Amino acid sequence: MEEIQSQSENYRSSSSSASSPASRVPSSNFFYLRKQGALRQPISFEDSPDWEDNTDVEVRVEEGGGDSINTATTPVSPSLSKLNSGSMPSPPLPEGAVVARKIAGATIVWKDLTVTIKGKRKYSDRVVKSSNGYALPGTMTVIMGPGKSGKSTLLRALAGRLDDSAKTYGEVFVNGAKSSLQYGSYGFVERKNTLIGSLTVREFLYYSALLQLPGFFYQKKSVVEDAIHAMSLGDYANKLIGGHCYMKGLPSGERRRVSIARELVMRPQALFIDEPLYHLDSVSALLMMVTLKKLASTGCTLIFTIYQSSTEVFGLYDRICLLSNGNTLFFGETLACLQHFSNAGFPCPIMQSPSDHFLRAINTDFDRIITMCKTWQDDNGDFSNVNMDTAVAIRTLEETYRSSADAAAVETMIHRLTEREGPSLKSKGKASSATRIAVLTWRSLLIMSREWKYYWLRLILCMLLALCVGTAFSGLGHSLSSVGTRVAAIFVFVSFASLLSIVGVPAQLKEVKVYACEDSNQHSGGIVFLMGQILASFPFLFLISISSSLVFYFLVGLRNDFSFMMYFVLNFFMCLLVNEGLVLVVATILQDIFWSISTLIFIHVVMMLSAGYFRIRSALPGPVWMYPVSYVAFHTYSIQGLLENEYDGTSFAVGQVRTITGYQALHNVYDVSPDVNSKWRNLLILSLMALGYRVLVFLLLHFCVKKNSYLFRFVCCRLRMNE
Ligand SMILES: Nc1ncnc2c1ncn2[C@@H]1O[C@H](COP(=O)(O)OP(=O)(O)OP(=O)(O)O)[C@@H](O)[C@H]1O
After folding, report:
1. Which of 76, 267, 528, 697 has a CB 3.0–4.6 Å from the CB of 436, allowing a cystine?
2. Cβ-Cβ contacts under 8 Å for 248 (sequence gap 6 or more)
């Protein structure tokens, strides 16, 4: 807490303006007065960076075990020492201090940046309109505005992460050059945390480092520890992210910091965060911002979006880009923004949070509330400090900014930052695909073994089902009259066990979400994910199939031969593998637990109906039920194979002299083939189906999740509505 206090003390002295110095701010605004004797140098346009060819990276001194990221091999980037020194005062050198290298941040400049989004029909498809601004190493630049003002879109445009439906016009410069950010040089943290609850913070970051970075396993430990320290997660490092029955999971603030730490293992020069304070209380928000401020002080360029923040948190920002409906209402230092509002006729009242004031002035949603409360307001005095229609206020602020010295100063700064190219940010090495498959397999194995709802619950349910079906159909004997009942037993066991596999949907869905997040940051790939997933699932599926098959097999009294029994186990294993693929396909498309489960139950019921038990397959109506449903239903091949395995080479006595083959005994009850190799053909079809579903999942991941297709957006849209 001491640390937080000392950092929050600093914020009061942390902002000064290039064009609107603190002297212009009313002295009554006590939050924004510079502390006497503060070490911070005011930033001015004379401080614009000079790119140096010097290969040394500035060093910073940290007390033992300090929370900085050591960047011993970080390549040089522009020396912006003067600007860097502007964000936080460096502490004096304590004795025995550990020398840590600073990260060479990236200078990001955007000029006349416009983003249009296809399909966004309301009013205009221009989501960001001619935005100008810059972010410097060692500083925190915040994109602020009401909901749907284009904050996330601008952030994505700067990071080069817009999806295909968006078009960007204008220029983005990285270190003075018109180029995009390369792999490893930047990190992007999405608004929603996608973490793995069954791993500890340290494990989660370690596996993430293994997926992201090339090199030996032991080398990743130090980057993970650095990321843990940088995000002040030391106390939580060995805690399970999702908790367990006797322990609650990580609080939301710590979860958010873990999401950020994941991006830090790459030691990025720039970090983009969409809403770091999303759903955080005021204490967690302040702790988050102080931690980010500390991270920025190591040299990293931080850009993030914020909807609203407390006064204390607001004071920590270096620069603010205020958006409303895609228009830039202000870009510059935080103090200057207050001055800008004052100049436009909307001074921030004393004791009111600047961010609340800004949003109050430019958020059109307030108009509705004011109208709604008109009568009450008349009786209780005016609770609005902006006595103007919001649309007019926005126009006034926009025009005031356009003609202000702040806008001119930003243009001058942009010109200076882009007139010479600095060192380009090189792409960092990636872990090889083989390493990634091995890491994902191991990680999935760990998750599957720890999350009891993944496979353990299914194992218990399948065992119980085998016991129930086995006892219900026990003592059948091997007479001709038992054929129909035996077919029923096999059908019930296979169909119901496959149906029970649906309990794995939530876990599968989580895996898909983690994949989507990792893939968007290029930490994973479709094939890598599928290989890891399928390899890790093998031992669990085999365990389920062998244990439940054996119970069922012996209780019902199927053929007493090892090879026939092993075929039964193998067939049931393949059946579970196909079903796993089907579950993955549905979960990938629908991305929602309720809809995935409902759809899967419906698919299973339809497949059971067409599997040839309720009505023999050859008698099913041709269109739909026969073609294609009965051919697509994996139940058909599995049950057919199992029955052929059970009755192949058998014969039944009919009367005194006549005998019939197993095939003849069966073919009136279930559609089987007289061919002796048919059971193996059915097994092959099942394995091809398992493969086919994986290929389908790969295509869906590639074209729907990754490319953010219309289908995927439609589904996401519907889910957002559900939320
Ligand atoms: N992929 C997309 N397809 C269609 N419209 C989009 C897409 N992305 C953003 N938009 C639209 O662009 C506008 C700005 O969205 P954006 O997410 O950038 O705003 P925001 O300021 O971050 O808002 P919020 O904080 O509410 O998410 C919104 O009207 C949104 O509906």
Report:
1. 528
2. none
Q: Give the residue from 418, 449, 481 where a domain finishes.
A: 418
Q: Are residues 385 and 440 in the same domain?
A: no
Helix, strand, or coil (residue 171): strand
In this structure, the residues whose C-beta lies within 6 A of any atom of ligand 1 are 117, 119-120, 127, 145, 147-153, 163, 165, 305, 307
Q: Contacts by 378-384 with C-beta closer than 8 Å and gap 24+?
A: 384/360
| CATH code, domain with 70 | 3.40.50.300
pLDDT tens digits, residue range 71-116?
Answer: 333 333 333 333 333 333 333 434 444 334 466 788 999 999 999 9
Mode of pairing for the β-strands spanning 140-144 and 327-333: unpaired
The closest-lying atom of ligand 1 relative to the alpha carbon of residue 156 is 18
DSSP 8-state code for residue 87: T
Q: To test the ligand 1 pocket, which listed residue (142, 148, 328) has its Cβ within 8 A of the most ligand atoms? A: 148
CA 458 to CA 466: how far, in whole Å?
Answer: 12
What one-character DSSP code corresponds to residue 74? P
325 and 460 belong to one structural domain: no
Q: pLDDT confidence of 718, banded at 50, 70, 90?
A: low
The DSSP 8-state label assigned to residue 502 in this structure reads: G
The answer for residues whose C-beta is within 8 angstroms of residue 714's C-beta and 6 or more apart is none
| CA angle centred on 575, ends 572 and 581, rounded to 5° | 145
Burial bucket for residue 448 (CB in 10 Å: 0-12, 13-18, 19+): buried
CA distance 201 to 259: 10
